[in-house]
Amino acid sequence: PNEVIFSRKFTAKDSHICDSFAERIIDDWLSSHRIEHERNIPYGSTKMTADFGVGNTRIEYFGLLGEIKGYDKIIQRKINFCEVEGLKLIEIYPNDLFKTSVGFKRCLGNLLRQIKN
Question: Best label site of 16, 37, 68, 104, fewest CB within 10 Å?
Answer without folding.
Answer: 68
